Amino acid sequence: MSRRVLITGGSGFVGSSLGLGLAQRHPDWQITALDNLRRRGSELNLPRLKQAGIQFVHGDIRNPEDLDPVVLQSDLILECSAEPSVLAGYTSPGYVLQTNLVGTINCLELARQTHADFIFLSTSRIYPIAYLNALNFTEAETRFQLLEQQSLRGASSHGISEEFPLDKARSLYGSTKLASELLITEYADAYGLRTLINRCGVLTGPWQMGKVDQGIFALWIAFHYFQKPLQYIGYGGTGKQVRDFLHIADLLELIDLQIDNLEKLKGQIFNVGGGVNNTLSLYETTQLCQEITGHKITINPILENRIGDIPIFITDSRQVMNATGWQPKRDAKITLTEIYEWIYQFEKYVTDVFN
After folding, report:
1. What is d(CA 102, CA 109) in angstroms, rounded to the nearest whole number?
2. 99 φ/ψ angles, rounded to the nearest 5 degrees
3. What is the pLDDT of residues 61-72, one digit of tens each?
4. Got the DSSP string for 101-119?
5. Is pLDDT above 80 for 1?
6. What DSSP element (H or E) covers 248?
7. 299-302 and 230-233 as β-strands: parallel, antiparallel, unpaired?
């Protein structure tokens, strides 16, 4: 079935990757990418979108007038726009609230007016920081390791499931995303919208303009490529903090499945990440980056923890796997190598972004 798809944040890393992937898989779909181009490097995706036949609209989800239901007629909205940094919630709370909460409300209003399906990319950071810091883990040679025995519901050696408690503070960033989830549920119930929420862990892959506070794996290999110094921040400066990662191409495969099965999956909330088999500590990431680039760089230890940080997060994605049959395919070596090859191929375009 031919679809009219609107992707908010459509020139960002996630939005553009999903748009380009869906355009390739479904050449009869009409895909529109809406973006305010605020994030540095997002403008580099405009020629790629144009070449794929994706219409670009310069707009900001904070402004209701930019979401004209006549101009942006669609039967599916992929809500990928967000300020994705936890730290930004502490330094620029007004912007984060306007973008991540008011922006979601404006997108929901558009969905209400156009009767569009609505798939929302939420975040694993909706889970409370105090509870995540209370997880039982041990310190191994190269990483922190979750233990099987956990005192909190929804936590195990597989990671954090959808049953993990939500009743404490989680950061302003996480709160805007959780509040958006609640509003999506209300709009679905009040107006009969088909909605679906994916709580994504760390997403990465080629064309991600990584920063210290978001897109860490892309940043790590980029700084090895350009031979710039890095830091292990917090937890004794050992680099043993752990995250699971998900290649953006694996997310694309899941989103395509979800679109095709939205009637069956509507109303559900899924934790979506690479899971226990796709995890890296910063220390382990460094070893892989050295192997792939052939460069060894200076990494300075910072002993003090940053506000809002956590030592370990692994996404337990078993629920979405059981519901769809999906599972991630791309491991750490493949993922980091693809990012390296992208930087090598487009070095003249991305040099300024990472320098």
Report:
1. 11
2. -75, -50
3. 999 999 999 999
4. IIHHHHHHHHHHHHT-EEE
5. no
6. helix 248-260
7. parallel
Beta strand pairing status for 159-160 and 155-156? antiparallel
Report, in angstroms and rounded to the nearest whole number, the Rg of the chain calculated over CA atoms.
Answer: 19
| SS3 category, 296 | coil
pLDDT band for 211, please (50, 70, 90 cuts).
Answer: confident
- Of 332, 318, 310, 213, which Cα lies nearest the Cα of 272? 318
Averaged pLDDT for residues 278-283: 98
DSSP β-bridge partners for residue 230: 299
pLDDT at 212 over 90: no
Q: How far apart are the first and last CA of the chain?
A: 44
Mean pLDDT of 324-343: 98
User: How does DSSP assign 156-202, residue by residue?
Assistant: ETTEE-TTS---S---HHHHHHHHHHHHHHHHHHHH---EEEEEE-E
Cα(161)–Cα(156) distance, rounded to whole angstroms?
A: 8
Which DSSP category does 150 fall into? -
How far apart (Å, rounded) are the C-alpha atoms in residues 199 and 160? 11
CB atoms within 10 A of CB 297: 17
The secondary element (H helix, E strand) that includes residue 343 is helix 332-345
Sign of dihedral through CA atoms 302, 229, 212, 332? negative
Query: Are 11 and 41 in contact, with CB atoms under 8 Å apart?
Result: no
Across the chain, what does the average pLDDT equal? Answer: 96
* DSSP 8-state class, residue 99: I
The pairing of beta strand 242-247 with beta strand 312-313:
parallel
Answer for the pair 275, 334: CB distance below 8 angstroms, yes or no.
Answer: no
- CA–CA distance, 199 with 59 (Å, rounded to integer): 25
- Whether pLDDT at 259 is above 90: yes
d(CA 10, CA 7): 5
Q: What is the pLDDT of residue 218?
A: 96
Q: 4-25: per-residue pLDDT in tens?
A: 999 999 999 999 999 999 999 9
Task: Name the one residue in this structure whose structure tokens are 């009743």.
Answer: 167
CB atoms within 10 A of CB 138: 9
For the chain, the maximum distance between any two Cα atoms, rounded to a whole number of angstroms, is: 58
Task: Write down the pLDDT at residue 340.
Answer: 98
| Residue 25, token pair as written in the block | 């898989």
